[in-house]
Write a structure and sequence with these properties.
Layout (H helix, E strand, L loop, with lengths): L3 E4 L6 E4 L7 H20 L9 E3 L6 E3 L12 H24 L1 H13 L12 H14 L5 H7 L1 H10 L3 H7 L20 H13 L6 H7 L1 H10 L3 H7 L22 H12 L7 H7 L1 H11 L2 H12 L1
Antiparallel strand pairs: 1-2, 3-4
Helix pairs in contact: 4-6, 5-6, 8-10, 9-10, 12-14, 13-14
Length: 316
């Protein structure tokens, strides 16, 4: 929300406020006090509406349930009224401040009016009959009648057809034209992947030295991996079709430590090896540098601080 310098409608003083700030804080407080006093007077006279009571919409005349003290419209009409009010007030504000809000557009419009002084402005008043006549003219001239072409060539004709008939297809039928004959033909898109392209991409990865094991390809180029499964059947079969030996390109499995390996002695041995590469023993740094060792230590000792205390005491 833009806070600008506004002029109070009541006292004429200037103040900082939003788009709908019509009164300065002093006048606003005074108006609030008077409004409340007027409400109390109307309430004593029984002229106020209770929440949950029924009232009539000022726009359509339907009955609605009162949900607010200043409600005037039913739920269906309220957004319409709000949009109309916003448009009206926005246009009023724009007309007063157009030189400041959009000087470029304002100048362009002034030049256009200056060039067209004395010229008669011709406006087409569209009717259903005129729309149908124009469509038949386009058909006679051999111009395309599909919706997209008409929107690009004569957007006003398309808009008038929607307004007066309801849809472009219905308008063509009214003009005696078969919509199916004038629909834009869409060519079938040729699929990007094929068996030959999959093989070509795999051979290209191998040629430039990229890994071609299944796990790495899934991370680096998942569309290639999925296309290989669709067009060839499996990743191993795709490697064979590419004249590669799958076993030579399998990712070597990491050697797992045997059960019971992580004793206090082995943990301290790995920790000493870790100390040779760093002096920063903060939990964040260790967790980032060697997350596996950090996780094992915390699981074994309960916390990083307890482990360091135990390690220092063991050295002493």
């Amino acid at each position: 929300m833009a806070l600008l310098t506004r002029t109070c409608r009541q006292c004429g003083n200037t103040f900082e406020g939003g788009p709908r700030a019509y009164y300065c804080p002093t006048c606003r407080a005074e108006r609030t006090r008077k409004t409340y006093a007027e409400y109390k007077r109307r309430k004593r006279q029984g002229k106020t509406r209770a929440l949950g009571s029924k009232d009539t919409c000022e726009r359509c005349g339907k009955t609605y349930t009162v949900k607010g003290g200043i409600q005037r419209f039913c739920p269906e009409c309220q957004p319409i009224h709000t949009a109309e009010y916003d448009r009206r007030t926005s246009l009023e504000f724009y007309r007063k401040h157009k030189d400041r809000i959009n000087p470029t557009r304002n100048q362009r419009r002034k030049e256009h009016r200056r060039k067209n002084i004395g010229k008669e402005r011709k406006l087409t008043k569209w009717t259903k009959e005129l729309v149908i006549e124009r469509i038949r003219e386009r058909a006679t001239q051999g111009l395309p009648l599909n919706a997209q072409a008409v929107q690009q060539d004569e957007g006003y004709l398309y808009g008038a057809a929607i307004k007066h008939v309801g849809s472009w297809e219905a308008t063509l039928k009214e003009a005696g034209v078969d919509p199916a004959e004038h629909k834009k033909k869409r060519g079938r898109r040729k699929p990007f992947w094929s068996k030959e392209r999959v093989i070509e991409k795999i051979q290209e990865r191998a040629r430039i030295g990229l890994a071609v094991n299944a796990g790495t390809v899934q991370q680096d180029d998942n569309p290639l991996y999925q296309a290989a499964r669709i067009y060839i059947g499996s990743w191993e079969a795709a490697l064979e079709e590419s004249e590669l030996v799958p076993k030579q390109h399998n990712k070597p499995k990491r050697k797992r430590n045997p059960i019971g390996y992580w004793t206090e002695e082995n943990i301290q041995k790995h920790f000493k090896r870790f100390l040779n590469n760093t002096d920063d023993l903060s939990p964040t740094s260790v967790k980032k540098a060697n997350p596996n060792l950090y996780a094992i230590i915390v699981k074994k000792y309960g916390s990083w601080g307890k482990f360091l205390y135990s390690y220092i005491n063991s050295d002493e």
